[in-house]
Design goal:
Layout: E1 2-6, H1 11-22, E2 26-28, H2 40-50, E3 54-57, H3 71-91, E4 95-101, H4 124-139, E5 143-148, E6 151-152, H5 159-169, E7 172-176, E8 180-181, E9 184-185, H6 186-199, E10 203-206, E11 213-214, H7 215-226, E12 231-235, H8 257-261, H9 268-281
Parallel strand pairs: 1-2, 1-3, 3-4, 4-5, 5-10, 6-9, 7-12
Antiparallel strand pairs: 8-11
Helix pairs in contact: 1-6, 2-3, 3-4, 5-7, 7-9
This protein binds NADP nicotinamide-adenine-dinucleotide phosphate (NAP).
NADP nicotinamide-adenine-dinucleotide phosphate (NAP) is lined by residues 6-7, 9-13, 32, 36-38, 58-62, 77, 81, 99, 101-102, 129, 148-151, 156.
Length: 283
């Protein structure tokens, strides 16, 4: 099987490449410069030349705060990029896997979001990602849309790494305790994604580690996994104003993922322990 991965220089993309290499696939991963997904000609030529069985789109504009002032850039990469990929995939009869986000939801629900709940983004990044989902559905063909959340893993800017750095520099950390979501280890996501793709049960899915928590609880877990004694104190979102609003609850119910791949992803606590062990002890 030949797989083309976009955004392979990013946090999730690199893990998807590793997972497919582990499974023995012929993996092609053009750099941003070699295949800019916002350039239709480049996209069409790259996919036409490689003729992959599968295109996995991990490329995106992911700076949530900066997107508020760079709306065009966000919509180009997160909206038009997926449209161009979907068009080329349809032309060459290739399956498209597109990664989306919990930030398409407004966070006002009282329970984790279902795949059939109606999205309503509250920031530009979320709106651009929702537009990307819509373009993939509009063009059609064989596609998966996989929404995920609160990613951490090697090779990317993420909350867990930030806490690991801060915990070595400070005795006390203040972390927001009024946003709930599901942290997700890119290594676990890449495995579940590949298993889902194998199923050929095309459609929209929620894929995260199991369980729901807050940034505060996640920070506490990271600190305890290191064995350090840094004090973590809770605070509120309003104590740390940011350019982009965040949903208060962006956890997502995984239904029907388990029915399709046959298992639930490990708990977020277990994922954090494995990741911290991996990067502190080299595995
Ligand atoms: N990180 C999270 O917590 C999170 C949560 C939910 C969903 N997601 C979604 O998960 C996916 C992967 O996220 P990530 O955290 O791995 O992102 P990331 O680390 O920021 O990586 C994104 C990659 O996309 C590349 N890229 C950006 N614009 C491109 C373009 N026009 N053409 C080709 N490549 C381009 C970037 O290259 P450059 O560095 O050269 O720009 C980078 O290699 C995204 O769809 C994101 O929306 C992420």
């Amino acid at each position: 099987m030949r797989v083309l991965v976009t955004g392979a220089g990013g946090m999730l993309g690199r893990q998807v490449v590793l997972e497919y290499q582990r499974r023995g696939a012929d993996v092609i991963y053009p750099t941003h410069a070699e295949m800019d997904i916002t350039d239709y000609r480049q996209v069409n030529t790259a996919i036409g030349k490689a003729r992959p069985d599968l295109v996995i789109n991990c490329a995106a504009y992911t700076n949530v705060d900066k997107a508020e002032e760079e709306e065009d850039k966000a919509f180009l990469a997160n909206g038009l990029g997926p449209r161009y990929l979907a068009l080329a995939c349809r032309q060459f009869a290739t399956t498209l896997v597109h990664i989306s986000t919990d930030y398409i939801f407004d966070g006002q629900a009282s329970h984790p979001y279902q795949i059939y709940d109606i999205p309503h983004p509250i920031n530009v990044y979320g709106a651009s990602k929702l537009f990307g989902e819509a373009t993939v559905r509009e063009i059609g063909g064989n596609y998966f849309i996989a929404r995920t959340s609160w990613l951490f893993g090697p090779g990317g800017k993420n909350f867990v790494d930030t806490i690991l750095t801060l915990t070595r520099q400070k005795d006390e950390l203040m972390v927001v305790n009024d946003q709930q979501g599901s942290p997700t280890y890119t290594a676990d996501l890449a495995i579940a994604l590949a298993d889902l793709i194998d199923s050929k049960c095309y459609g929209t899915y929620h894929i995260t580690n199991s369980g729901v928590t807050t940034w505060f609880e996640l920070a506490k877990k990271v600190v305890s996994a290191t064995g350090l004694k840094t004090m973590v104190r809770p605070c509120e979102t309003k104590d740390f104003p940011r350019p982009a609003d965040r949903p208060a609850l962006s956890a997502m119910n995984p239904f029907p993922l388990k029915h399709v791949i046959g298992y639930s992803l490990p708990s977020w606590e277990n994922a954090v322990e494995r990741y911290v062990r991996e990067i502190t002890n080299g595995g």
